[in-house]
Design a protein that fits this description.
Radius of gyration: 21 Å
Structural class: alpha+beta
Largest sheet: 6 strands, mixed
Distance between the termini: 34 Å
CATH topology: Chloramphenicol Acetyltransferase
CATH architecture: 2-Layer Sandwich
Shape: globular
Strand content: 15-25%
Strand order of the largest sheet: 3-9-8-6-4-5
CATH class: Alpha Beta
Length: 400
Amino acid sequence: MGGRLEAIWVVVILSIKSNKLRQSGTKNAAKTLKTLFLGIDPARPEQLTVNIMADKVFDPITPWFEALVELGEYIGVRFGRIAPGSEQPEWMFILHTEADGIGGLAKLLRERGATLPRLPHLKYPSEPSWKWFLKMMPAYLKPRHRLKWRPLAKGPEVEASKVPPPAVAWNVFDEPSTTRIRWACRKAGVTVNSFLLKHLNKTIRPYLEDESAVIPWMIPVNLRGKVVRDSDTENFSSYVGVRIRSFETVADVHRSIYRSLASGEHWGNWYAYSAGRFTNPSLKKYLINSDRAMSQWFLGSFSNLGDWDAEKKISEPGCLGNWLFSPPVLACQMIGAGCVTFQNCLSIVIQAHPQLTTSPAVAREWMQNWVKEIDMDLASLLSPQNPYPQAANIHHLAAA
């Protein structure tokens, strides 16, 4: 099986370099690639299963981040804690080669004395299969088109590989405000994730040269519960992509996310990462530089770590306060936005890659506009005639 996968990956890379398969159309390309599975019936993709899900030794994520480091990228996942009585966060960074977002926050809380139950597991009902990888093959062969930015204030020069991005801003919603957001989302039949991403997308759009462009976003997907690793804090993140048009509503964004999950994109991308075991570091760097390491080019990533300690059982002094989070930013993915709800208070963070801007003022402007968009939508969704329940009634909800 390994030899067949290696052959497939080599053909993918060669086709990317030569354009030959793309010239014949992505459907024909995918059909050609499937025939490399000698003796395998394409109608029975379960025959392709390799037990990567239970392979504790092989880490499909870390080698890609190691290649990013060699390319000069800073791969620290950003975490912050605003202690009670303080207004400024204490920033902490955990390399993405060591943990994903959920794992990183769990490590920090445990190091400070917190006892955590089982970490969040994948909620969407789907099973791993190589069929998703084959289904997504055409996406990896499609042309890449980056969106262009309007000129932004630059700020001081920094060495991107050695320091965290200086253009960062954050906002914390208190418990009543968080309750209003949750209730508005419940009322609209959408997740908090979809709600926040819709308004993030609207916030960023005016800073692009083409404000009417379709904006592609990467959304990490937690695969805990389906993938087995030695530690529950290691990398368990795959992703799906959503493309948001200027006229789309929160409900449209919500449906787009769940269509991507229903089509198995998160598994197709996970298996694509896994097939990367057959590429050397130089090929990984080539794929990253040519925007081919992922299923499409993304303007940025938006990651939600979900709901933590809603019952407020964690009381260790070093854990109390408001927690912040953002995924890393990369030259191929210049916006990083993240959120987490800790003890019923939602926080949001946005940061920019230094190649885009190093000005904190730009990030603060984005954050102010993001919060403004959220508040405006809440005002329209929640009226005096539709009171919302107290936090105790809905704190079990977790963002998708």
